[in-house]
Amino acid sequence: MEHFVVSARKYRPQTFKDVVGQQAITNTLLNAIENNHLAQALLFTGPRGVGKTTCARILAKMINSDDSEGHDEDFAFNIFELDAASNNSVDDIRSLTDQVRIPPQVGKYKVYIIDEVHMLSQAAFNAFLKTLEEPPKHCIFILATTEKHKIIPTILSRCQIFDFKRITVKDAKEYLKYIAEEQGITADDDALHIIAQKADGAMRDALSIFDRVVSFSGKDLTRKAVTENLNVLDYETYFISTDFILENKIPELLLQFNQTLSKGFDGHHYIAGLASHFRDLLVSKTPSTIELLEVGEQTKAKYLEQSQKASQDFLLKAIDLANACDLKYKTSKNQRLLIELCLMQLASITFDGEKKNSRHYIIPASYFKKKGITPIPVNPSKEKESATEVPNRNNKSVESAKAVTNKTNVSQIKEPTKVSLNQSTKRASGLSLSSIRAKKEHLIKQMEVVVDEENLPKEAFTESELVQVWKDYVELIRKKGKHNLASILSIDTPKLKGTTAHLEFPNATNKVEVERQQYDLLAYIRKALKNYDINVSITINEVKEKQYAYTTIEKFEKLKEKNPHIDLLRKTFDLDV
Predict the structure, then answer these.
(1) CA 73, 78, 79, 80 torsion: positive or negative?
(2) SS3 551
(3) SS3 for 44?
(4) What pLDDT, in 10s, does the model give residues 76-122?
(5) What is the C-alpha separation between 465 and 460, in angstroms, rounded?
(6) In this predicted structure, what is the pLDDT of residue 244?
(7) For 508-514, which contacts have Cβ atoms below 8 Å and span 24 or more sequence positions?
(8) How far apart, in whole angstroms, are the C-alpha atoms of residue 378 and residue 384?
(9) DSSP labels for 79-91?
(10) CA proximity to 25, closest of 49, 5, 42, 1
(11) With contact defined as beta carbons under 8 Å apart, do 51 and 22 qualify?
């Protein structure tokens, strides 16, 4: 059996040109070597598997190479690799500093590559400081670490730092494609893209995954084989889910989610992937952002097609819902229900249900007569608690009623229709909270008849006419025994701005009381002035409120003004105020 060499070792770059995704660093090192500007202490930092140790070995080989030397010379005697994870004591560093003094036998430089340098102890770092700051001319130190923040500042200040970046999905996929061609493997573009994504920016991880998938599927690398072996959700799952969401098919969506769970996938992984899918669809809608879509060409075509079905507003709401579900997942006690609820909300975003007109108006009797509707008057003595009386200029009263049932609009009625109230309504006690609530709801329902705004009268009127109608209404309710409301309405005279009557009251209690009775008030004013755009706006004036809020001293002074002898009474009996 032939010995197998993993791709990460077999295809390790031998020159800076072969290094993937680190062009800025490799160009800098090449120029430094050519111009003789190379520092004696270098720090390579970055994530795992991005080429730190590889670049260190290539650099060590290049600075020792000479035209007279053979190309195969690796100068192994001049390169010393130290693993700081296992050689992190002061004695190990002292042994290294002793070796530094000896010049190289072959080549120009002795290169010390210290990997995982952040693992050195505090004492070892301190022992290494002097040698690192002033090393011999023939010695170069290359430190490599994945956690730069753990290295003490005194070491960092003595090194020239190179930050290695994560390998992009595009660069990793192109390198995997090259390796597949070298090994005679037929690989789908989407399959290589999934491997590159799974590697999460590490080229070494990408090569390890590639070897594993090739062992599973052989010489033919398909997207299906990759998804099965790596246990990742295929793009097709999210495309189907999004189609169900856009078509408002909640049962099918829940069944598909159940099928996904039955395959062994985690619900958290599913909802996080769905949020990313919505993000990719949003990116696909704008040509300038398509380059942010890190998928294969075949999958990109599917994204472009599905993005045309979804609006931008839908995608923004969907991302927000899916992301919120992702954040709540770990703390939820019923995680499956949380995701199912999120899916139902997603499928309801584009649901176009019955839309109701929220504009409600109080309709005069003249409007019903124009439409051929004959209202049936209600006896006020029998329905006193549920009917609203709307007096007109001739002091006649007409009871308004709700003339629309279910989805039928008043403007759609062709034949004369009788409008009546439910005569069998049970009289409720005025002392019951439920009866008060029922009375109020019944009162509002009588006022709510949906009509076209254009058909309502909107005659012009002046502020003086408004004030006169206001006074008439105050006198009317006073005769009915509503002295408290009449007193409140008399506090201020309405000021007209447009079609809105503005009032100022001294406290919030007065405002609430008027707002409770505004249906009767507006019905009277609108009917009397023949304008159904009239509204009432109430504000609270703190100055007025202060005038009504007397202290005990102020009350005494007020009484003394009316009867000066009261002060004599207080002094005679030595009374306190």
Answers:
(1) positive
(2) coil
(3) strand
(4) 677 888 888 787 788 888 888 888 888 877 778 888 888 888 888 88
(5) 10
(6) 92
(7) 508/540, 511/538, 511/540, 513/484, 513/485, 513/488, 514/485, 514/488, 514/489, 514/538
(8) 9
(9) EEEEETTT--SHH
(10) 42
(11) yes
End-to-end CA distance of the chain: 112
**275, 319 Cβ separation under 8 angstroms:** yes
Q: How far apart are CA 71 and CA 490, in angstroms?
A: 106
pLDDT at 192: 86
Please give the Cα distance from 477 to 514 (Å, whole number): 13
What distance in Å separates the CA atoms of residue 305 and residue 295, rounded to the nearest whole number?
14
Give the pLDDT confidence score for residue 324 in this predicted structure. 92
pLDDT digits over 389-420, tens only? 444 444 443 344 343 334 444 344 444 444 44
How many Cβ atoms sit within 10 Å of the Cβ of residue 244?
20
Q: Rounded to the nearest 5°, which phi and psi values hold at 115?
A: -90, 150
DSSP element (H, E) containing 353: none
Query: How many Cα atoms within 13 Å fall on the side-chain side of residue 465?
Result: 14
Below-50 pLDDT ranges, the chain: 1, 354-361, 380-430, 448-452, 549
Burial 160-171 (b: 16+ CB within 10 A, else e): eebebebbebeb
The CA-based angle 490-492-497, given to 5 degrees, is: 130
Radius of gyration of the chain, Cα coordinates, nearest whole angstrom: 43
Residue with tokens 């072959």: 106
Q: Confirm whether pTM is higher than 0.70.
A: no
Contact 45, 52 (CB under 8 A): yes
